[in-house]
Design goal:
This protein is mainly β. The protein has a domain at 10-39. The protein contains 1 helix and 2 strands; from the N terminus they run E-E-H. The protein has a two-stranded antiparallel ribbon. The longest helix has 4 residues, at 42-45. The termini are far apart.
Length: 48
């Protein structure tokens, strides 16, 4: 049996303000990039 399947992956960018009020010290970015294959939206996943 072949259990392999292709899962749709997508890159989601979220503002870091809801998790941490500071920007990244090395690049200054205030966005968090999340690679996800879930079909739920990021706000449903809760805080990291």
């Amino acid at each position: 049996m072949d259990f392999s399947r292709r899962v749709k992956k997508e890159i989601v960018k979220v503002s870091a303000d809801q998790y941490a009020p500071k920007a990244c010290p090395s690049c200054g970015s205030s966005e968090i990039t999340i690679r996800t294959s879930h079909k739920r939206i990021v706000s449903e996943l809760g805080n990291i």
